[in-house]
Every structure is written in C-alpha cells, then in structure tokens.
Amino acid sequence: MNKKLIAMLSAFSLCVSMTACSNKSEDISQEGGTSSTTTSTNTNTLLSKSDKKVETIGEIDTYIKLSDDNTTVDGSGVKVDKNIITINTAGTYSISGSLSDGQIIVNTSKEEKTYILLDGVDITCKNSSPIQILSSEETVISLADNSENKISDGETYDESEDNPDAAIFSKEDLTFIGNGSLEVNGNYDKGIVSKDDLMIESGTISIKSVADGIKGKDSVVIRGGNVTIDAGGDGIQAYNADEEDKGYVSLEDGTIKITAEQDGVQAEANLLVAGGNIDISTGGGSENSSNKDGWGQWVGGKPGGSMENNTTETEDTTSAKGIKASSIIQIDDGNINVDSSDDSIHSNSKLIINNGDINLSSGDDGTHADAELEINGGTLNITKSYEGIEGTDITINDGNIHVISSDDGLNVAGGADGSSTNGRPGQNGMESTTSGTATINGGYLVIDSDGDGLDANGNLTMTGGTAIVNGPTNGGNGALDYDGEFNISGGTLIAVGSLGMVQTPSSSSKLNTINVSLTSQEANTLIRVESEDDEDVVTFKPTKTYSSVVICTPDIKSNEAYKVYVGGSCNGDEKDGLYSGGNYTNGTEVGSCTISDVISNISQDGASSNDNRTQPGGRGDRGNMMNPQNQSSNEPSAQPNNSSNNSNMESI
What we know:
The protein is built from three helices and 57 strands. With 652 residues, the protein is mainly β. It is 4% helix and 44% strand.
C-alpha cells in the first residue's frame, strides 16, 4: 500500500469520526478554535472559519528602493548583493522600485514575524522565485493602498537546495493583506506557494500560472479581497495528506474567480465555503465534456499534474472538478457559480450544503459524495449534468433545488469514486450497493432528467417538502426507480415520465397515491386531478412527452372519489409546471377512482408500455410492469427494478 493511499484512508477515517454527528453536531475548528454545538434543525456544522487574528502592518523600520543599477536601503536588517536583496532580521520593510532580473529573499528568525509592504514594485527573476521566503515565523505581505505590484519569474529555474517552484515561494506561513493590487506571473510552474499555511485577508491579487495558481501545504484560507486565477493546473490547492488537521481550504469571503485546466479548488482534507462570490471554470467548462459516445475528448488533450504529497512521489492523477475534497465539503453561504467539464462539487466523503446561492453546469455530476450528501437550505440550481445529485446516502431537509440531468436526476449508489481522465472526465465508477438511501424531509425539489428521476439502489423515504420529476421519455428508465421501498408519510410528489419502467411509492406509505397510465401525451399538455366536487388537487404541465403520472399528496383522501383529465387549460399561477388557483377549462377525462387502498391506478383507454419500449434505453421484457387496468390495488403498479440501477453507475 503506497503512502498516498495510506494518507487518503487516514483522512477518510477522520471524516467518519467527524460525521458521526447529526444536526446537533460538534463544531470542529480547523485552526485552533474552540468547539461549540449548534441546535439548528436546518444546519449541520462540522467545519468552522479560521480563528487566526487579522494581521496589520505597523511603522516601517527599513525602506528598500529597488534598482537594477543601484538598490538603496534606508535602515538596517538588509544585505544587498548586486540584485539579490536579503532580509535577514525580522521587522517591517517597505519595498518599491523594480528589478529586471533579481530577487527578494527573506531569511529571518523562525521565532518572529516579518512584515513587507509592497509599494509599487515590478520584480522579475529569470531563473528562480522573485520573492523567496526561506525562514520566518510568518511573513505578512501588505499591498500598499493604491499601489500596483508585479511579480514574474522565468520559464526555467536553476537548481537549488530550497527547490522553489513558484513566483512567490515560502517555506513558512504566508499572509497577504492591504488594499493595493498584485499581479503574479508563474511562467515556470506555480503562482504562489506556501509550504505551511497560506492566507489572503484582502487586496486585489491576479495570478496567471503554468501549473497551480495558489498552493498551501497545510491550508489555504481566503477571508476577503479580489482574487483572480488563470491556472494550467489547479486553481487553489491544499495538499498535506500526512497530518489529520491539515490540508484544508476555507473560502470565507471576498470575490474569487478561477479558470483552471484541472480542479478549481482542491483540498486533501476538508473544504469550507462560508461566503463570498465564487466563479469557477475548469477543463474548458461543461461544454468541453464529451457526450456519451465519446467521453474524455478534452480540447487540447488531457490535463496533467497531480495532487502533491511532499513525502513521496505519486502517480499522476488528473481531474477537472470545480470544488473537490478528499474529506468533508461544507457550504454555509456564498454566491457560487461553477462551469466544469468534470463534477462541479465533489467529495470523496461527505458533502453538506447548509445555505448559499449555488449555480452549477457540469460535464459530469452536479454534486457528488462518495458517502453522505446532505442539503439543509439555500438555492441549488444544476443547469447541466450527467447525474445531478449523487451519493451513497442523500438527505434533503430544506432548500430550493432545480436539477437538469442527461442521466439520473438524484442517484443513490455507493462505493469509492475512481476520479481520473482515462475515459470520460470524472469517471465516477461507484460500485452498486443496496444499502444506499434517499430521504426527503423538506424543501422544494424539481428534476428534469433523461434517465431516472429519483433513483435509489436502496430505499426512498419522503416525510415532507415538494418533489417534482419530469422524467425520461424512453422506456428503459423511470421517473421513480428504487430497489427497496419508497415510503411517503408527508409532502407532495409529482413524477411524470414514460410507461416502460413505472414504479409508484410503496403500499406501506402513509399517504395515498394515484398512478395514471396514458397514451403518449405531448409536452405541455396539462394533467389534472380533481375531487368529485371539482376542487383542484393537482394541475400540472409536464415539460416533455409523457405517458405516466404518479401523484402523492395529503389532499388525496381515503374513501373519496377523484377524476383525472388531460389537456384543457388553466389561468392560475404557475411555477415549475404546477398551478395554483385560477380556473381550469376541462380537457379529456381519462378515468376516475374512489380511494380504497394506498395505491390507486387509473388507465386511459389504449395506454400501453409498448409505446416506449422501442425507444433508446427501452426494455421490451419490462412492458408488463404497468398495470393497465382502471382499478385500485394494494400493490404498486410496478415492482422495484433490481437490475437497472447497477448499470447506471458503470463508467461509460
């Protein structure tokens, strides 16, 4: 077993111990903070912001004026050797001027902080890092108000025992503050690197790098400022896999824009998004992903590189995910926009969304967790995906969620994710398991899927909220697809799709279901369920061609009669196809029933699953899963499909 695998297993082990908490969970600080608890029923707080104090710069001790011909120093603690300027005493230094081929080196006591004010510098070093920090307790780089600063390296480096690999390279903690601007050009490899903790508190920082943009071994924390990254590798990366409390990323505020050939933000351990405005594009964006007939055809070839482990050489693995972590990802707030050729948000363990305004366009999964995926609030809008929401155990407690997927909308499966680009981007090769669950306790969920709408290799449960599914038009998939049971005790479910693989909620549910089988209906043709006295139960306008409608709501009462219509019109208020209020002009009545059992079936004359079986994905031998009779039954009209889920998770 190699060291990287051992480190990954250690990180997963830590995650398991952390995620043993439920909604009343321990608040685990990432940087020496104290533990606290939260009793909110709509948040799950496992990660918290950094508690490191805010840095400020004090009175200047020494002024350095850079010049190719004659660098001058007003003060002490500095050695000038031609165009190599070495700060060898801790203090506060102001640097201005330019060097066409020179270096600033910090080599001070590890027991004291060094403060550097960049006040209009333009430093280029052709064969090494223009700013190189060898020793210091911490170096704080302040960008002077209204100043413009530029740091650039060359395309080749001379060999050095310190092994610098970035335009700004630090072996110690590194913090950026101030209200000026900083342009960093990493022409050799990376933009900014710290071998310890790296923090940005403020400033306007623009990075263009051949490889990774910002890389901190122990952590990367962004508290504010305006950060723009154009990276040939990862945008932001924390890579320490050897220490359980290290290798994390915390995005807490500010404006962050990342364009990366590989991952946008990558953490070896935990990743917290607590606020700010975040825009990420990876691998050329979702339009650069391949379709099912040609996964993996990246424009310009496959991106290269690897997540670094400083103790061992590792085999290159690449991906182009938007936000990625080996352990927990927690999103508490922020405006997040991701356009990724691979998964938009991906956790090798647990993903928690507590709040935020999240917009995702993915060439693979919208959101993915190898283990638990939990949504407690916020707005999640997945405008493009292969599979929309995927995890081993999925829980939706609250939130406003819209999903568009070319395969499953919500998919419960299980197993480790083999993330690589030998095949389609992401290649989520999760192994099938019958133990996965999906639970909807609240919120508002709208799915438009070409594959299964709600798909679970185990059980589905719904206790509240609203779930609307515009499911597949082909007969080989269903708006609902589960292998165990689907019990509903609260909330409203509307699931529309094809007839070939129809399933309803289980007969053990607490709420009643009407299962309607129809001849093929055109998109935008209304389906209407109303009571015997013409009161509206559900009036819905599907977005695609359909022949199956499953409706479960508390408004369907036992021992009462209901009628079903197709067509007609309604002048009420419409949201996501669901109407409220207004007047309905009758279409064609397709049947009626009196609710005597949990599952009641209504079938239009001429309805047959054969209408769908010959379409792509259809399975002719499953046609008998539809109950074509206009009768009540204690059993669902179709039994769970034990085979279709397994194929959904195979790499394509």
